[in-house]
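[Meeting: bench + compute handoff]

Bench side (C.D.) handed over the final construct sequence. Compute side (W.E.) agreed to return the predicted structure before the next meeting so the bench team could plan truncations. Sequence as handed over:
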Amino acid sequence: MSATSGISRRTEGRSWVSTLFSYASRCKGKMVLSVIASIASVAAGFVPFYAVYRLMEMAIVGSLTWDGALVWIAVAAIAYVLSKVLFGASTLLSHVSAYAILESLRKDFVSKLMRASLGTVQSKSIGSIKTVFIDRIENIEPPLAHMIPELGGSLILAVGLAGWLVSIDWRMALACLICVPLGLAVFASSLKEFNAKYAAFMAESAHVNSVIVEYIEGIQVVKAFNQASDSYEKYANAVKAFKDFTMEWFKSTWVTMNLMSSIMPTTLLGVLPVGLALYLGGALFPADLAMCVVLALAIVDPIARFTSFVNELKSMEYAVADAAEFLDLPELPEADRRATEVKDSSVELKDVRFSYGEGEEVLHGVSLSMPSGSFTALVGPSGSGKSTLARLLVRHWDVDDGSIAIGGVDVRDMPLEQLSGLVSFVAQDNYLFDASIRENIRLGNPAASDGDVEAAARAACCDDFVSRLPQGLDTPAGSAGLELSGGERQRVSIARAILKDAPIVVLDEATAFTDPESEDKIQRSIARLSAGKTLLVIAHRLSTIVGADRIAVIEGGRVIATGKHDELLSVCPLYSRMWDAHVGARAWAAGSSGEGSTR
């Protein structure tokens, strides 16, 4: 991503400020109280200064006594403690508000992912989702939690101290603040290219992060093909480029930032000469002169704090803008939240056309009928559109033209919750949670009993591998199911679909990773799964669908033939070639297995 694209991306749609304010309004009461506590803290913070002033005044005129001094010391101490308590209360309220905003953002983030089409969500990399959900949103907390009590309080304190100086003598105030505009002017000069530099920094950061992830995830391939040196060079170059960019940016701001830091604390260069001149001229009392010196030193810190928040504000801008990019994802339209009555579990595709985004059309007027309780299979070369058809049925996307109906009702006219209840979808890349196998199966029906779960596991032919596990069904599946093989994960997913007991079942190449020895078991599990249900199978192995009521051959986004297995062998050359290739592959596998067993 270029710097320019990074900036333009953040100027489109809602501004990050409006997005943040929309969430801040949800905890408006706490934030208002935080502001009030911050102002009260600043007000209490003025009292010790005034106490010092009175003590100096008494010392100069010779009326200072222990009794009088102790009173003002006590007043200063109480005010100091009170200011810290109020500041703590402001900080507490601002942190509670900040984390409430983070909680709302993350809840809305997940809610948006649930309401957006799955195809749209899956177009985002898991890395970008994780970065925004965990890192970017977390970056909102520090500036948000500290701006109200610290930045707001600092600005109020600076204004109050400046007003106090004016009340003593406007000339002293001018002498004190003369360097502030100069320092801020120097600071402003360093911000001329700040937006472009920050956007470029974020782009460089994103690039180096992606290279690091690529290097770590591909380490097995790198080692297998002896590409360690070339791959490491790419990794090292990306890290070095990021370092060089960061150092160059730092060096470009070094002079101005240090110059500003040098100018801002030099208020005494103006206060002392002017103050002495006014004192010697009889226009300023000694106590007032001393107070002006104290205030001149105190006013620098709150002004300097403001400059330190600029970088945090920019970080928050990017964080909110990146979150807003997900929050603005298009949702699948739902005309009515009420469930629509469907007459049966039949599926009807009429002249379905579809393209991914602005790309070329991938489905060209597909029409297909699946009667209630039938077993339909989709076969065809890779990229022919089989999986796209299956995913359109469960509304991972919406069709561009035509319609898909269940029981005579267009899937776009029923709530997503109802559609989810009607269809079980088992994909090739099934995800298992880091929980027991039993709980992963129970996801199909959270109210199911242990007996129901075990029956579903047996029906999906899970019992043969489950029986070998140390804790049976209670064995942890591991993170993302990594403790199980690909075929075992698929059978757990089929068991989940059996337990769900939806009237329509879609298997998207769900047997792709199954070894040849398990084919009979998978066929039996599919038969049990489809009993009395409408079954749509995208076939990876043609042997698993020879008993289908209807097989649709897809090529180039069109249905070129339909029929039973024997019919298609004689009338569809493509299906015949696919079958011959499948039988040949099975024969080779069987031969290899036999050969291996004689060694």
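W.E. noted at the follow-up: The mean pLDDT is 79. C.D. will use this when planning the next construct.
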